[in-house]
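Trying the structure run again after the queue cleared.
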Amino acid sequence: MPIIFETDETLQRVTVTIPAGTRWAAFETAARAAIARTPDLTDWMWIIDDQGPIEDIDVEGMVRIGEDFRRFSRPPLRRTYTIVVTQDRHFDTWLRVVDLNHENRKHFPAPTLSAARALLDQLTGTDVSANRF
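Done. Tokens:
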């Protein structure tokens, strides 16, 4: 299955669905291509639904994605968030590495996609629950 990027222009949110069995190189390539096509995505809020988890995470790849985010973000940089849906018990360790590479972007884990949406709503002060069915 392919990696799917869904965008919500109104909320300026990206939801990325990463199917189980996806390799890191495929995710990195897809993320960097999306950013290159639409640089404004670096200023949007992201939810990454990792249905794997990805087993072969690459620190250098994290650095490259972070560099793309820093390069394309509009000044002045504002706090943005990425919520990662994951069951990876080592994610808290990776979280520190990812945050270091993204400057003003903060990453958080969530156990489910609905929990990720709720957390992002809370962090951004957005209440869109009434619009969901």
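The mean pLDDT is 90. Worth checking whether this holds up in the mutant runs.
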